[in-house]
Write a structure and sequence with these properties.
This protein has about 140 residues and is mainly beta. The chain has one helix and ten strands, in the order H-E-E-E-E-E-E-E-E-E-E. It has a single domain, classed as Immunoglobulin-like (Sandwich), CATH 2.60.40.1850. The structure holds protoporphyrin IX containing FE.
Length: about 140
């Protein structure tokens, strides 16, 4: 009987460990000025677009970055229309279906440590004029 109980307990432990390994985890994410991320001073050199980056969800190889949909700067409001990460176009996501993107996702191959830095290029639609800008997207562990 004891053996059966411990086998059931061990099975439950393995299952719960598998479940936590599969679960998506939420991570802090920030946008820094191109080439100016300094891990010893996290509040320095943030990009003007940092407030548009909310947080990130990591699920296996897939990172989903959540966005502030309408982003205001310089007395005007804009939305992201395109993003490339490490030179590759990401999948833009319109979760609420209102025609504006509220997230983007991409896959990564390297292990995420305390922080991982990705080269990021953005196209921002402001009125009818798109603005292109580059920065460093950092996902924290
Ligand atoms: C209303 C929307 C926006 C306007 C009007 C705007 C305008 C500007 C302007 C005028 C610059 C050059 C001057 C400067 O460095 O401050 C700039 C730089 C930049 N923008 Fe924006 N932007 C907007 C939204 C965004 C968004 C949503 C992102 C990214 C999520 C972004 C990312 C950047 C980056 C990476 C730079 C390079 C300088 C820096 O990192 O601060 N911008 N933007």
């Amino acid at each position: 009987m004891k053996k059966l109980v411990s086998a059931v307990l061990a099975g439950a432990m393995v299952l719960s460990m598998c479940a936590s390994a599969l679960a998506a985890t939420t991570h802090e994410a920030s946008l820094y000025k191109d080439g100016e991320f300094d891990p010893t001073s996290l509040s320095s050199n943030l990009s003007m677009g940092d407030d548009a980056i909310l947080d990130a969800e990591v699920d296996g190889d897939t990172i989903t970055v959540y966005l502030q949909e309408d982003f205001s700067a310089y007395f005007t409001t804009g939305n992201l229309s395109d993003v490339t990460i490490s030179g590759k176009t990401v999948e833009m996501i319109d979760g609420d279906g209102n025609g504006k993107y509220d997230a983007f996702s991409f896959t990564h191959t390297e292990d995420l440590g305390d922080y991982t830095k990705f080269d990021a290029d953005f196209t921002i639609n402001v009125s009818i004029m798109p603005i292109a800008a580059s920065g460093d997207l950092v996902i924290f562990g």
